[in-house]
Amino acid sequence: MTESSDIQWQAITPEGLKLVDQAVSRQYNETARKYGAEQRIYSRLPKQNSRFQLKSAADFLNSDPIKWRIKGVIPENGIAAIYGPSGSGKSFLVMDMAISIARGSDWFGYRVKPCSVVYVCLEGEAGLSVRLAAYRTTGTIPSAIDFVDQPLNLLSPKDLKDLGMSIKARGSTDGVVIIDTLNRAAPGMDENSSVDMGHAIHAAKLIQQGLGGLVLLVHHSGKDAAKGMRGHSSLYAALDAAIEVKRSGPDRVWSLAKAKDGEDGRSHAFILDVINLGSDEDGDPITSCVVRRVIGPSSIGKPLTHSQRIGMDAFMAAASANAGKGDARVYADVDQWRREFYSRSTGDNPDSKRRAFNRVREQLVAIGKLVVEDGVYRLPLGFPDLSD
Predict the structure, then answer these.
(1) pLDDT (tens digit, 9 = 90+) per residue, 255-314?
(2) What is the domain range of residue 195?
């Protein structure tokens, strides 16, 4: 007869351990009930030492939803970016966002959860005081916003450490740190290099991990704005949220290019209101701008209709007669423009041509392709993109 000690037992499987554990648990609880003791789950399963913990779907379903800094736009924690071409107004938009976050006031109709803001201003720092003076005309500048106007190198461990120490000393952790711009904050970086961009992304993550909250990078569009932000695609992939800013003449629009658990593609129009702040020592006016939300759909990015293209072609032909007269503007009076339009119009009679001209004339002014003063039409300063 074979002794049990002579049998070569195989190692018990995880499934076998679970069966043993269930049996032991039942026996324990039966004994507990008999003596009136508290029942509990008794487990002899080995503890897991791996750092990788398996989670069920229920674990995630019961977890907290994403927390928003600006609801539906940027999260409380992570890395985000605002990008656009030079002159698009992105720095003014960032300032407007920063002050709204520090105030805790709605931003373009979105609910804001207030927090401290640290704005690292590396471009246009000389004009920071007048920008703040302009916003002071709209209300007090909140004490929850601070500024850094000294050079910062994200690729320098010492700079990262010093920035973090200053922000912690101010008690501004778990807030928003804005770096304007990424290019100025990483001097010498090859933005198209995956290695260099990887170092910059890592630096932004170190700031975020050390301070909590959100790091917001201000960046430029590439030469082809349709392709999005400048540099290696790893930056866009690393972002939790991205806002794109575009401009056409006086019209500007920001849109959600990427939203973590949000609805990307939403867009909002705005313009820059010029604020007169007095005069300098030479008597020249001091001005800056503040952002003003425009209610209603934006015309930016929408192609011109066939009639509108005829209208613009006619306007440019009429304006060419005024070129070289010592006026840098591109302009034509209404009669010049009307004659050119009529010569191109396919209307059946003068009345239909008149109606078509008046309709197109109003539309091109309404969408910001042209402006009018005393019957003279001209291109806006900063020439809009007529290739739409």
Answers:
(1) 988 887 666 667 888 989 899 999 888 888 899 999 998 876 555 556 788 888 899 999
(2) 68-294
Residues 279 and 193 in one domain: yes
pLDDT, one tens digit per residue, over 92-132 is 999 999 999 999 999 999 999 999 999 999 987 778 999 99
What is the domain count for the chain? 3
Domain match, 185 and 332 both:
no
Residues 6 or more apart whose CB falls under 8 angstroms from that of 354 comprise none
Q: How many Cβ atoms sit within 10 Å of the Cβ of residue 252?
A: 26
Please name the amino acid found at residue 311: G
Torsion angle of alpha carbons 179, 182, 184, 185, nearest 10°? 60
How many CB atoms sit inside 10 A of residue 205's CB? 14
